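# step 3/5: fold
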Amino acid sequence: MVSTRFVLLPAAFVLSATTIAAQADPDRTVAGGGSFPPGWHVRTELARQTGQPAPLANVKFGAMGDGLHVTVGPAAIYWRDADTISGNYHIVAKITQMQNPAHPESYGIILGGKSLADSGQSYTYFLVRAVDGMYSIRRRGGYTARPTAVVEWTASDAVVKSDSTGKATNELSVEVRAGRARFMVNGKEVYAADATGLDTRGVVGYRVNHNLDVHLGALGIHKL
C-alpha cells in the first residue's frame, strides 16, 4: 500500500516566501518621471513593498515619435478622458517592448474604463507577454480588489516573442460589434465572447506592468 503524506506549512512560512518573492523583484527607480503629456492621466498600482499607491515619480511617460514612450517601475494604467466610446467600435494599438524585463511582464490595452481615478475603478484589460508568447484578458472591479481572469495566461503563436535583444512589437485590437467582443493579436483572433460579460462601455487606454520599457503606438479608436 502506498502511503500519502500531506505537509501543512506554517502560515508565517508562506507569508515569508511571498515577501521574499516581492523583494526579489521590487519596482525599480526611474529617473525623470512624474510629468506627463497634457490631457493624460496615470494611475499606479499599489506598491508591492508598502501596500500604498506606488509613486508617480517612478513613471516616465512622454511623447516620442509616432506615439508615447513609457519607462516604469510600478505597474500603471494610462488614459485620456476624451477617449470614451460605446456601442460598436474597434480599438487598436501597436506596442513595442524595448528590452526584456528581469521576469515575464505584460502590457496592453484597457477598455470599458469607469472611475479610473478613484477607488471604484473598473475596466477590462487585454495583455501580452513577449518573453514567453502568452496573452491574458482580465477584469478589474475596484482599485484594491484582485483582478479576475476572463482568460488566464495562454500561449498563442499570434504573439510575437522578444528577439535576442529583448525587443518585440505586437498589435493588440478589440472589436465590439452586435453584442460580441473579439480580441486579436497581430490580426489573429485569440478570444471572442458575449460583450455583456465584459467592460466595453467607457474609457480606452493602455496598461503597462512593472519594470518595463515600452513604446506605445497611437491608440486607434474607430466607431463602427
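# step 4/5: annotate
Residues 11-22 have pLDDT under 50 and may be disordered.
# step 5/5: archive (pending)
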